[in-house]
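Please predict the structure of the following assembly.
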Amino acid sequence: MTAAVGLGAGAAAARSAAPGTSSEAGARTASPRRRGRSRARETLAGYAFLTPNLLLLGLFVIVPLVSAVVISFQRTDGFGTGTFTGIDNYARLATDPVFWRSTINTALFTAIVTPLSMLLGLGAAVLMNSVLPARGLFRSILILPMAISGVATALIGVLVFDQNNGVLDKLLKFVGLPAVEWQSGGAAAFASVVIVTLWWRVGFNMLIYLAGLQGISPELYEAARLDGAGGWQRFRFVTVPLVGPSSFFLLIMNVIYSFQVFDIVFVLTGGGPQNATSVLVTYAYNNGFVTRDQGYAAAIGVVLLVITLVFTAVQWRVSRTRDLVD
Amino acid sequence: MTDTYRWRMVRVALAVIISIIVIFPLYWMIVVAFSSRADLLGGELRLWPENLTLANFERVFAAFPVVTWFGNSTAIAVSVAIITVTVNLLGGYALAHLRFRGSTVLFLIALATLMIPVQVIMVPLFGLVTGLGLYGSYWAVILPTAASAFGLFLARQFILAIPRDLIEAARMDGAGNWRVFTRIILPLSKPLIAVLFFMSLLQTWNDFAWPLIALKQNALFTLPIGLLYLQGQFGADYGGTMAFALINVLPMVLLFLVFQRYFVQGFARSGIR
């Protein structure tokens, strides 16, 4: 059910809208002329009601999107009008090591954070769906990070992961483990971004899975138990397939989130050390608003957009094949 | 029997461990916010505050316009929530109950805009906001943030579930679309309005990337931007930073806990954050 809400939702919505329209037309048996006039009025009303939302979206999203593509072919200094330089910006990207580093980091971050937050989310959801005292309290605690701002989350990360005087390294030393150089080590810094992100995001994944789990009939588990299925088998062959729609929805949401991760990286590491945690959105920000290379920043943005579109198109195809198979 | 008992103990232990991991960073923020500077500089591991103090808060309030920033955050978040919920409800009604050419395409385009990260459009958006003369006012943040299809889908789904008979009956009585919307749809949509309002409020209150670009004057900062600015000034003064982080976080945490039902519904149904 929740899966219908994501971006695949468009397809479902389009499909469900079609039959409604035809039965509607069949049910109304007014004369053609009256029907024509009322339809014109309905069209007018439809646009009138939709206009405020469309106007805002058009002005503050679509128009800037189109000009971002235009600017990506220009060379601009400061905020003046640019001069067209063809594909210069894109050619520069191809040989820019920081751009490649940021692209690889974005992909790596996505490949690590997406499965981990889904796995941990599913595990927590199964736990929270089982018989447990004070379940409501545990659930409230697990989703609490969702209310915390990204900046505050990242700053708490700065505090906890501080390699000079941070509580985490003190705890590690206390239990006899070596302290980690969370700021000066590239891999460690990357790991700290992943850990903070997981802390922030797992609650959301759990919530979606919890909604999915609550839709599974207990009789299915009973039937599986009677067939001699153990705990792991019931999880593997009943739970996992039946939360499929939730998994699919979360896959899309997590990937799109990961492509756009900004707050945590910007505040926690600033992309450092030596670009070890730089991602596409932070690199675009640095070019656009720090070094003021606007055309170049726009080109990075367009690349990010194309990657997102390709992913969505693939997902769309897969979801349609799934629909046909089911 | 004993086996199920043992498993229950395992589950409780797991739940407690996970909860501690989740709670600890928040607990630590509070400890640091109320600890003296001397205590924080000590090298040894200490997991609770030695000497409780309000000195960090006093320092933060003395050095920064905290009350102004709090007011900015409130004004911007409430304005965005009102505008976006209003336009989403209007649009949701059109998409749910009015049949017109192009509605599906427009709906799909609106949904697709949710995928566009602000970093893709930030350069021209900044130019646009400046060109419209919005730069230097709240509107530079409010309007682009309120331009969202967030909630449009939820509004459409919710309004679709309102029985058509109710609307047809009102039509028979000669009610136009505006009357149907204000007299029938709105009163029946209170739960939806609550969900959308809280979601939008939370999102805007915590928003970072666009306000960072659009708010350059100190007097206009929202709390997250102020928090980053303060950290830049205070550097390693974790006590002050965490005291202010607490001020940033507390209102939404309280709201979240009190109105958890609405947030959970909103997140579970929309999944957009």
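The radius of gyration of chain B is 24 Å. Chain B is about 75% helix and 0% strand.
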